[in-house]
Design a protein that fits this description.
This protein has about 250 residues and is α+β, with helices and mostly antiparallel strands. It has helices spanning about 1-5, 30-35, 55-60, 80-90, 150-155, 160-170, 195-200, 205-215, 220-235, and strands at about 15-20, 40-45, 70, 75, 95-100, 100-105, 105, 110, 120, 130, 135-140, 175-180, 185-190. The chain has a 4-stranded mixed sheet with strand order 3-11-5-12, sandwiched between helices. α6 (about 160-170) runs parallel beside α8 (about 205-215). The termini are far apart.
Amino acid sequence: MIQSLLHQSLRPRKIVLYLSLSEFPDRVVPRALARLEGDRFAIRYVGENLKPYKKLLFALDEFPESWIATFDDDRLLPQDCLARLWDAASANPGTIISTVARRAVVKDGEFLPYLEWPKVRSSEPSFWLLPLGTCGILYPTGSLHPLVGDRRLIQQLAPVQDDLWFKAMSLKQDIACRAIGGDKSMKLLQFEDKTRLWERNESRNDGVWRQVLGHLGMTPDTIAAQEMRLHAKARGKTAPASPVGNALTR
């Protein structure tokens, strides 16, 4: 997977793999991976085991002024993957760009179960889109609310549901998302342990989503208001202010 990042047509300035010392106490990785370290690729060993959050939270701390792209480690990326994300970001300023996303579905004022949210690509940004980290997400600088790194809240509300937490932090920051598609061209890698973290977590996503939004004071109505403002802005009109901005109490 690292090789496919190193050979992108749009070269990333730095590729960093964050590994937990609780999982790699001797700092020993496969030789083929260690040989790739150099000016463009680095392995960082971190004290905290933040599980799926490792791929973004430490990078936000280390590169606070940078655009950051994250990928899970179970895909081989086509050479134009980063270029496509960057082109979409350039065409949609102030928007989080993902390869694939689920579109949240609301019925009678309530969210339908997570597994009923369809996987989609979109031609326009939307607040209803939940970016999925497995195939790549590009985060502009400042696109996530400062609470994104609050370890206490993460453990309390969404200990392993990073996609849901990052989505909530983008809502809190009033940042929409767009999904450009292209996951079909990403080869899925096979591992001896065929159980994938996202498969174990999906059954718990509904309760976690309600818990996170409830803590932040968000509802389907507040997200609908953000979406209305987004469309009004695109048409050059003014919509009512979002009720989300100062909803959080700590």
